[in-house]
Amino acid sequence: MLAALLQTLDTTIVNVALPTIQGNLGATIDEGTFVVTAYVIAAVIIIPITPWLQMRLGRKRYFLISIAGFTLASVLCGIAGSIDELILFRIVQGLFGGGLLATAQAILRDTFPPEELGLSQAIYTLGAVVGPSAGPTLGGILTDNVSWNWVFDVNVVPGIVAFVVLAFTLRDPGQAKRTPLDGIGLALLAVAVGSAQYVLDEGERADWFGSSLIFGLTVAAIACGIAFSLWETRGTTMPIVDLRLLRFRSVAVGSLIAMINAALVFGQLLIIPQFYDQLHYPATQIGELIALRALPIAILTIPIAIFANKLDPRMLICGGLAVAGAGSVGLGLQTTSDANLLTAAPWLVLTGFGISFVFVPLLTAVLGAVPRADSPKAGAFVALALQLGGSVCSALLVTFLDRRADFHRAVLSGNITDGSTAVQSYFDAHGTVQQLAGIVNGQAGTQAYADAFVLLGAFAVLASPVAFLLAKPAKALA
What we know:
The chain has 22 helices and no strands. By secondary structure, the protein is mainly α. Helix 1 crosses helix 9 (130-145). It starts with a helix and ends with a helix. The relative contact order is 0.13. The model has no long low-confidence stretch (mean pLDDT 85).
């Protein structure tokens, strides 16, 4: 989990450092954003084929290669002298890091006895959920107090420690098998997932289908996605991604729930830093605020795992999503231009409390529904669902924020007329038109962020009953 934590941290740790990176490397906003996008695209391509790579190379060898490659790529990112170099090294980092989380999950699944499945997945959850939440905190502290380079250099020592310890202690469950490479499936998957991820990350900035590139990549993603599904299920006997695993209801429904949970987790991670940066809070304080949401997850994950086998996981997941959603709605209702860290703190703690009851029961339900040999494949589906859920939600939120800000700006501007007493008083106090426009824009943006928090929360609450589509657990019914 020390190795896997590196990958989850790096999905979010760079976000708060982007303005500094752009300034130091002379990059535009779009170029800076692609530092994040490039990493995510590379990781998303690798995640589905991780089970095949484990089989082809051997799990231990693949894990060690991934750790070493990720650590070396982190060093290269830290010494990058231009934005182009940094983007290239981030692609390399994503290619090596994409499989760390799913491989760690498979190792934990096979190391613990069946009766301790919940405990093994609780340890996994500490990396999968706490990692992304801790990323902005650590990134803010390093950026404010050292330099942006350290958001990458921080991976070096943990990476070396993980590699050395695992090289001497990790057991390999089986020998590597010379499994043929499904080259057609790999090519279709890379184009479909890579194109879709680029469209999601860059669509709003490129005016969506107003851009010929975005339109072309959308067509490519849909066409290659359909072709990939047909090829993997009918065209080959050795698929690189075993889509047949989706016949297990808990795998299909569990992946959907993982996307719903990721929408809330990563959606808040996107908009909280943006909103409080607009209020001129330093990166360190914003990171500390996000850490409040991760605190109950870190505290409750292991205790929940101990008692999870005695309860119906569907009840825990449904209740957890509903509570987490309520926390996000409350956060939205408290989001004003006078908001501060104290007004947000209790709602973020409530959100974290709810999330604590989702992930461990979900993983236990999914992995417990498939044969042990198929657990790496099931884990890869859940890991991919987490990544895609966060990406889809982030893309939709960027568009939503722009649209709602335009709406609130139009409403507020419509109430500002020459005959308004308040407007006349403002100008009498030597206010200017430009200053008034700035106030209107600020209020419109604040109300858009409030709407986004409410939307995320309402979605989680309304989607929570999906948990009851999971297969009934035998232990919970006994």
